Amino acid sequence: MRNIVIFASGNGTNAQRLIEHFRDRKDVRIALLVSDNPQAFALRRAKQAGVETMVVKRSQLGTEEFIGELKSRGIGLIVLAGFLGLIPKALIEAFPRRIVNLHPALLPKFGGKGMYGRHVHEAVLAAGERESGITIHLIDEHYDQGVMLLQAATEVLPGDTPESLAERIHALEYECLPLCIDSLVPGIEDL
């Protein structure tokens, strides 16, 4: 059995999509949801789906104790689905090429510290972009960099607001993230 952990800081709609997508699989499962926000609705979504949860401080992410906990659970892939913290180098080195991030823009544009959620959509609209989208990528020690796995785009429409653009971006996320993660499953070490 291959085990995936989701890191989420907020509402957890993408986490829920992943949990639902992998629910009845025999080869892979969402084994854990980790949050740095004890109030994150993602925690409730995971608990309601029977997925174990853990709240950690960002300062703990690179510790031997936390990394050891993930390894003892046989975690083969980490998915950042709405997780706002920078992942420490120690965690990246412990899980090389096995940490995937979802970003709500077409990187390299509109990435970096502070570029998440509504902030991204406001920046896209302010720049007069004709399209926006999502990027799913392997992470490195910098915000929103690393090897791209998938990009999907949607048109920016006249009269778009951050909310209307966000709706279309969320639709892309809900469709593409489970499929992209599914494509990585054969390469996840069976720990």
UniProtKB/TrEMBL annotation:
Gene Ontology MF terms: phosphoribosylglycinamide formyltransferase activity
Domain Formyl transferase N-terminal residue range list: 3-179
Pathway info: Purine metabolism; IMP biosynthesis via de novo pathway; N(2)-formyl-N(1)-(5-phospho-D-ribosyl)glycinamide from N(1)-(5-phospho-D-ribosyl)glycinamide (10-formyl THF route): step 1/1
A GO cellular-component term linked to this record: cytosol
UniProt-listed InterPro entries: Formyl_transf_N, Formyl_transf_N_sf, GART
Site (Raises pKa of active site His): 144
Binding site for N(1)-(5-phospho-beta-D-ribosyl)glycinamide: 12-14
EC number(s) per entry: 2.1.2.2
List of residues binding (6R)-10-formyltetrahydrofolate: 58, 101
Catalytic activity entry: N(1)-(5-phospho-beta-D-ribosyl)glycinamide + (6R)-10-formyltetrahydrofolate = N(2)-formyl-N(1)-(5-phospho-beta-D-ribosyl)glycinamide + (6S)-5,6,7,8-tetrahydrofolate + H(+)
Active site, renumbered: 103
Top-level division of the source organism's lineage: Bacteria
Enzyme class label: transferase
Gene Ontology biological-process annotations: 'de novo' IMP biosynthetic process
Keywords in alphabetical order: Purine biosynthesis, Transferase
UniProt family annotation: Belongs to the GART family.
Function: Catalyzes the transfer of a formyl group from 10-formyltetrahydrofolate to 5-phospho-ribosyl-glycinamide (GAR), producing 5-phospho-ribosyl-N-formylglycinamide (FGAR) and tetrahydrofolate.
Protein name in the entry: Phosphoribosylglycinamide formyltransferase
Species of origin: Candidatus [Bacteroides] periocalifornicus
